[in-house]
Design goal:
The chain is 26% helix and 23% strand. It is α+β, with helices and mostly antiparallel strands and 62 residues long. This is GNAT family N-acetyltransferase.
Amino acid sequence: MVDPAYQGLHIEDELMKQIMSCFESLLYVKVMPSDPKTIPFYERYGFQQYDNYSAMVRKHFV
C-alpha cells in the first residue's frame, strides 16, 4: 500500500521485488487482492487467478 501522493514513482514495484526475494524458494505464494484494480500489478509478478478461487497464486517450479 503506497500513499496515493507517491503512487506512480515505482515504489510499489521496489517493495514487491524485496518481498518476493524473501519467498523465492517457496513452491506457492498466494495473495488476496483487496481491489480488483490491483490484479494487473500482481500479474506482472507472475501471479495468476484461477476459476472459483479468490487468491492469486504464483507457482515456483524447482
